[in-house]
Design a protein that fits this description.
Blueprint lengths: L24 H7 E3 L6 E3 L15 H9 L2 E2 L17 E7 L6 H11 L6 E4 L8 E5 L4 H6 L3 H10 L11 E7 L7 H17 L1 H8 L3 H7 L9 H9 L9 E2 L5 E8 L4 H20 L2 H6 L2 H6 L4 H9 L15
Parallel strand pairs: 3-5
Antiparallel strand pairs: 1-2, 4-6, 4-7, 5-6, 7-9, 8-9
Helix pairs in contact: 3-5, 6-9, 6-10, 10-13
Length: 329
């Protein structure tokens, strides 16, 4: 047969294209790719991409994907940054037990996007009958004052979804690396202090997370204690835990806190965002030695936000003060 692109004669067994469109290996490698959704071979010039995603689609699958309420797992639109500041927090909230249902997702999107394009929904293979709600990056102030988390969680609950109770769901918080310093060295030093803080206070954070140790071993493994933040960062960079680490470092633009269990309880979401923000603030404002000397009681003693204080009291990790606990959902 002949390569339809360059005319080179090739054996049928060496056809790198399809029976309808035979190709030599060079033409195939230089000019063709495959649709991420349907697997169809497409010319590079005919490939469509969703925002800044690296995943190619044929035209029909691209149109289907753009119109869906629940996108494929690799869907990644251009981020929209909400709020004024340097530190932006992005949320991935997994919900389950209500079905991977386009109509339900559309209702949740309507609840979250009435005053702006705040969220989108994605397929997640770790869930049985649900999907993932993803927020665009926002400052903590925007999350607290303008982001309609109450509308989103109320709608999900009315539609029959759970998160904490499903036992399959996580609540992941992304933080932009640029918030930790103006260059890579400064960012790495702060990230090392974050890893050290997490390892040093693992028992308290395990209680805060509402995860079991078995769940963390599967989805958010710890790196293991080292005596210095720099040592711990170097250990983490060697790929010990990959992306399924308590603090995932494999993303180019963000670090991801993965230790928290999912929830549809509003105060828990807000308290989790506040905790992550406090950990980041410790990392950028204190030295290595100061973080090494920082006890959990001194850390929580600096907290003033009522949502976070409420949650710490519920989990019995706030300066020995206990209160009644509301059920997670």
């Amino acid at each position: 047969v002949l390569c339809l692109d360059c005319g080179t004669r090739i054996y049928r067994g060496e056809n790198s294209g399809t029976s309808e469109h035979p190709l030599c290996q060079d033409c195939h490698d230089d000019h063709y790719t495959y649709c991420e959704r349907c697997g169809r071979m497409i010319h590079n010039d005919a490939a469509h991409y969703i925002d800044d995603s690296d995943y190619p689609y044929c035209r029909s699958c691209y149109e289907i994907e753009c119109d869906r309420s629940i996108h494929e797992y690799n869907y990644k639109p251009d981020p929209i940054f909400y709020g004024l500041g340097d530190r932006f927090l992005g949320v991935e909230l997994e919900i389950d037990e209500g079905g991977e249902d386009e109509s339900a997702a559309n209702n949740i999107l309507h609840a979250g996007n009435r005053s702006g394009e705040h969220i989108y929904c994605k397929h997640d293979g770790s869930l049985h009958e649900g999907f993932e709600i993803v927020s665009h990056p926002m400052t903590l102030e925007y999350h607290m004052e303008s982001m309609p988390w109450k509308d989103i969680t109320d709608k999900a609950r009315r539609l029959g979804y759970t998160s904490h109770q499903a036992e399959t769901c996580g609540l992941h918080i992304h933080v932009n690396r640029s918030s930790f310093g103006t260059d890579t060295e400064a960012q790495d030093e702060a990230i090392g202090r974050i890893l050290y803080f997490v390892e040093r206070n693992w028992n308290e954070l395990l209680i805060f997370s509402r995860r079991t140790q078995e769940q963390l071993n599967s989805w958010a493994r710890r790196y293991g204690y080292k005596d210095q933040p720099k040592e711990l960062l170097e250990h983490a960079k060697n790929g010990y835990a990959g992306r399924y680490a308590c603090v995932n470092l494999t993303n180019y633009a963000t670090i991801e806190f993965r230790i928290f269990r999912g929830t549809l309880k509003l105060n828990t979401i807000l308290a989790t965002l506040q905790l992550v923000n406090h950990i980041c603030e410790v990392a950028v404002s204190l030295s290595d030695e100061e973080v090494r000397q920082l006890s959990w009681s001194r850390f929580v003693g600096r907290i003033t936000e009522p949502e976070l204080i409420q949650y710490l009291k519920e989990r019995r990790i706030y300066i020995n003060e206990n209160i009644e606990t509301e059920e997670e959902i």
